[in-house]
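anyone seen this seq b4? input:
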Amino acid sequence: MKSIARVVSVVCFAVLLSAPALTQTAVPPPPRPADSGPSLAATMQFIQERVGQQGKINFALYVHDNAAGNDWIVQKAVEFTNIVPHPETCILNFHFKLWHDGSIATDQDFWIPFRDVEDVVFQPVEQSIKDVDNKAGYTTRSYRSDPPVFALRVRRKVTFNEFDFTDEDMANRVAKAMVHAIELCGGGNKDPF
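predicted toks r here
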């Protein structure tokens, strides 16, 4: 009986000595998933080219105040120039010009830090304008643009940038490219719920 107990003790001791060796065996990490889609540089270049090719966009905005019964027309124009991508810093610089009834309302340089972007919203420009007016207290207005214009709103925590397009398909393609750039730069809404 003593010899069986002694054999069991030796076996148990040997297993205990070999356990640390088993836990120290190097296991290669799982393979990284293959990067899907174009590189950040190619994605930002696509955005640069497609936004830049728009040129100056002119449209009439027909406004109706449902409470007062008033109607009016605003002649609007937007233009995006000097679009410069910086993939190394995940920033897109551009110059934005906005006209209201022939007068310049905005003429300024802007930038989008894709790391800070939470999401991209694609909608008709009428809805975009209605969102801004509702926040300013103008809740009884309705809008119609001619020709139809599509707004691509790139939203961050406290602000947004908006790009307008007359071609809905192109606006959708640029929206997808921007979402891809945001993902590559580590941006996007991080709220798990």
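Confidence is low (pLDDT under 50) at residues 10-34. The domain at 40-185 is CATH 2.30.29 (PH-domain like). kinda curious what u guys think
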